Automatic annotation (TrEMBL):
Keywords per UniProt: Methyltransferase, S-adenosyl-L-methionine, Transferase
GO-annotated molecular function: O-methyltransferase activity
Catalytic residues in the record: 231
Database matches in InterPro entries: COMT-like (IPR016461), COMT_C (IPR001077), SAM-dependent_MTases_sf (IPR029063), WH-like_DNA-bd_sf (IPR036388), WH_DNA-bd_sf (IPR036390)
Family: Belongs to the class I-like SAM-binding methyltransferase superfamily. Cation-independent O-methyltransferase family. COMT subfamily.
Domain O-methyltransferase C-terminal: 99-307
Protein name listed in UniProt: O-methyltransferase C-terminal domain-containing protein
BP terms from Gene Ontology: methylation
Superkingdom, natural source: Eukaryota
Amino acid sequence: MAAEAQQLTVPTEAELLQGQADLWRHSLYYMTSMAFQCAVKLGVPTTIHSLGGAASLPYRLTPVSWLLLDSVAVDGHPNQTPIVLAATSRHCIEAAMGLSDWFQKDVVASPFEDLHGVTLFDGSMAEQDPEIDAVFNDALASHDNSGFLTVLRECGGALFQGLESLTDCCGGDGTTARAVVEAFPQIKCTVLDLPKVIDNVPADGVVNYVAGDMFKSVPPAQAVLIKLVLHHWSDEDCVKILAQCKKAIPSREEGGKVIVIDIVVDSSSGPTHEAELLMDVAMMVMTNGRQRDETDWSEIFTKAGFSDYKLLKKLGARGVFDVYP
Ligand SMILES: C[S@@+](CC[C@H](N)C(=O)[O-])C[C@H]1O[C@@H](n2cnc3c(N)ncnc32)[C@H](O)[C@@H]1O
């Protein structure tokens, strides 16, 4: 033991000082979230915007601030304030604080469900605490509805040109489906979601809304779109969901495909990669899902019975896949 210890190389003084700074950073990262939450709650981005983009304090509108402005949707990105409020809420932070206890238990429930006794987005939370349920639902909507105009611009032609029909699986209030129909009016669009969601969506004459359960069946169409859904689910559940999507489409020769839009973790370093990894931990804390790299996605597609796929584009952290039966 003593001989082994002698072989250890003790860090230099400079390395130890750097180590101390790193330790502070790792321990205090949550202060970034708290200071950020404070600025959002105080409406700092909107105030700077109303002052013409600059203020007497040394602040200016950064791209992040543009995403946080009241009543200004830049390039179709809805205001992202609800995500900040949900991610920095007591519910999330307390669930993350329980991570080490959770690792030592043998439970299927996520740390969030284990601690709070409710699951995100399934109605149980609405019964327990309607106020925080509304915060999380707003966060989900602002997250999921952002960036789709970019998808349409960058790969709308490859994805939707020539399609006759499309089912948006877990399509919520139809925001995405309506954007598809606006860009490609020939497509007959159906939205599948749970009854509690569909029952509250007014008929719009543009999209057909179907209440159901994707684990049981998905309304048939030439293509099924499943956007920012699968990262909420375990690998086993993803295989079940995709198998139902596959049943809903015709053969590849007849144009059948599933369009998967979801986070694809890449191997580069940098802020986007760091965000992907943080989102992975967030999924572990709050759901049974995770973020996946391309190899993980490929394995899931194969297990669900698909023969091939194409990663058409990576837009920020999101990947756009065509998956073929
Ligand atoms: C993460 S959101 C989907 C986001 C949406 N695709 C978008 O990009 O805007 C999750 C949605 O899945 C729906 N959902 C959850 N479980 C479902 C199920 N078993 N069958 C159908 N929809 C379900 C929820 O009601 C919610 O609207």
